[in-house]
Amino acid sequence: MKLKKAVQKITLVQNPPPTPRFVRIKEEEKAKTLHELLDHLQFFGNATRNRESFRVTLLPTAPLLGEIGFWSLITKDGTERNDFGFRSADIGKAIGFHCRLWRSAAPETAASVITAAFASAACVAIAVKFAATGATAVVIFRAAGATAGSSNSAARAETSGEGVASAGIYCDGCNCVNCHNNVDNEAARQEAVGITLERNPNAFRPKIASSPQEPRNSKETEIQVIGKHNKGCHCKKSGCLKKYCECFQANILCSENCKCMDCKNFEESTERRAIFQRDYNLDHIKQPTNAAITEVVGSSGYRTRITPRKRKIQEMFPRKSAADQIVNVTAQYLQEIDRMASSPPSLSESFVSEHANARISGSSRSTYRSVLADVLQPQNVTNLCSLFVILSRVALNTNAETRGNTKTGNLKASAASSAKSLRETKDVRQPVCDDHVNKAEADAVDIADYNRPMSPETLALMCDEQDNMLFGNRSANEAAYQNTIQKSFNFDARSTVVYGEQERIIMTNFLDVLRELVTFGSIKG
DNA sequence: GAGTTTGAAACT
DNA sequence: CAGTTTCAAACTC
Ligand SMILES: [Zn+2]
Ligand SMILES: [Zn+2]
Ligand SMILES: [Zn+2]
C-alpha cells in the first residue's frame, strides 16, 4: 500500500492537469509511426480545437492535393479562404460552410453540413456532406503541433518565452486568468521579463522609433510622418491602410524597413489621403462638439493607444516537464499502427469519398471522380461518420455519469455495434444526415471532454469494453498496462485517463477504418 | 526562410 | 453586437 501511494505521488507530480489542448503522444517513435500512417493520407491543413470550437487552417499546398481531387473552402462570393472555424455545437447543422470540389470537370460549389468531427492527438477529422448533391467526404487535418517527430505546440510553448509583461506596464483590471503581471507579483514579473530578455534582448524595445504619442489638436498629417517601425511591416493584403499593419496602427508611414506589398501607406498616397480625410470629417464635422473626446479614440484608429501585440507567456511560470506528463494511453493502438504502417502504403491519397446516392442519374461526367472511388465505399464514410456520432455519445454520456451504472451497458453495446458495423462493409444505404443521426450529432458536442472525472467502475468497464471490442484476446502485457493506468492515478489525475481512454477508443476505431481502407487499397492496386 | 500558430482587426 | 473571417506578427524549426 505504501508503495502504491508513493507511485501515485510521483505520478501526480509528473501529471498535472492536462491543458485543454491535444494530448501529446509520449513516445515519439510510436507517434511517428502514427504520423507515417497518416501520411499515407493527405492532410488538408492543420487544426486546433478547444472545448467549443474547431479551427482549421488550410495548408498552402492544399490545392496541390487536387491531383486526386480536393475541395477548397470558399466564401459565398467564390473567393478562396485560408482558414475557418466552426463550433462543436454546430455539428450537424447547416452552417453555411461552403466547399468546392476542386479539379472536377465542372467545379461545383455547395453549402455543406459538417456531419461529424472529432479530434485526437494526431488529427482532426471532419465529415462533410454537400447539401446540394448529398456527396459526403471526410477530410483529415493534422492536429496542431502534431507534426511527425515533434512535440505538440502546447508542450513547445512551455519553453517559449514572450512575456505579457511589457516595458513597465502592468496589467490592471485585465481579464487574464491568474494574471501575474501586476504590482503584487513584481518578483515573478521581473523573472519573466528577465527570461524573455535573455531569449530576445529586443523583446521590450519599442517597435517604433520616436512615434508620435502626444495628443495634438490638428495637423496630424505632419506629425504622422515622424517615426519609423524598427522592423518594418510585412503586409500583403491590407495595403498598409488597416490596423493589421503595424505601421498604420502606430500612425506612421511605411519606411524602407518595411517589406510590404502594394503599400499605400506613403505620403502622397491618395488612398491614404482619402482615409485621412474621412477620419478627419468624422471627428470634426459630424461631431464637432465631441472633438475633445474623440481625441482619444479616432474613428479609424489613429491616435489609439499603441499596444504591441505579444503572445502570452504560457502561464507565466513554465512547468518544464509538462511535455512529458501526459499519459501515454495510446500505446496499444499505436502498436496496431506499427503493424499497419509497415505494410505497403498503397493508399496514398486523400481520404475523400463520395456518396453513391449523390450521383445524378445517367452520366456522371460533370462530377469529380476520385481515383479512390472504387476503393472507398460510401459505407466507409457513412460508417465513419456514424462512428463519430456514436462514440461522441458514448463519451458524452460516460462523462455525464458520476458513477458507473447500468446505462454504461447500453452505451457499451452501442459503441461496440457501431464499431462492428464499421468493419462490416454491408450495404448501409442510410444517409449520414438522417434525422435521428443528426440529433445525435447535435448532442455529440464534445468527444474529448477533458475535465470531468470518471468513476473507477466506469473506467474499468470502458477498458474491458475496449479489450473485447478491439483486441479480442489481449496480451498479458496489455492487461498489465490497463491495470497500470487505473492504479497510477488518483482522483485529480483521472480526467487525463478519461480523455486518454476516449481518445483511444476513437482512435482505435478510426484505425480500424484506416486499416480497412489500406487493405482495400492493397487489393485494388 | 518557410511553415505554423496565435491574437486581434475587420467584417457581417 | 456576437460570431466569424481575415490578417500579419510571433513563433518554431
Ligand atoms: Zn504594412
Ligand atoms: Zn510598413
Ligand atoms: Zn507598407
Tell me briefly what this model is.
With 525 residues, the chain is an alpha+beta fold. The chain has helices at residues 2-14, 28-40, 153-158, 186-199, 220-225, 246-249, 270-286, 291-294, 331-341, 378-400, 407-423, 435-443, 456-471, 476-487, 494-524; strands at 45-49, 53-58, 70-73, 83-87, 94-102, 109-119, 123-130, 136-143, 208-209, 228-229.
Describe the 3D structure.
The protein has 525 residues and is α+β, with helices and mostly antiparallel strands. The chain is built from 15 helices and 10 strands. The chain has an 8-stranded mixed sheet. A two-stranded antiparallel ribbon has the order 9-10. A hairpin with a 5-residue loop joins strand 7 (123-130) and strand 8 (136-143). Helix 10 packs antiparallel against helix 15 (494-524). Bound molecules: zinc ion (3 copies). The structure holds a DNA duplex (12 and 13 nucleotides). Belongs to the lin-54 family. It is found in: Nucleus. Residues 402-411 have a biased composition (Polar residues).
What average pLDDT do the residues reach?
Answer: 48
| Main sheet makeup | 8 strands, mixed
Structural class category? alpha+beta
Taking pLDDT < 50 over at least 5 consecutive residues as the criterion, the unreliable ranges are: 1-39, 63-70, 100-109, 147-182, 211-223, 288-305, 314-378, 389-499, 517-525
Helix content, binned percent: 25-40%
Following the backbone from N to C, one meets helices and strands in this order, namely HHEEEEEEEEHHEHEHHHHHHHHHH
Strand content: 5-15%
Q: Which ligands does the model contain, each kind named once?
A: zinc ion
Radius of gyration: 27 Å
Distance between the termini: 57 Å
Domain CRC: 151-268
Main location: nucleus
Region (Disordered): 402-427
Keywords: Nucleus
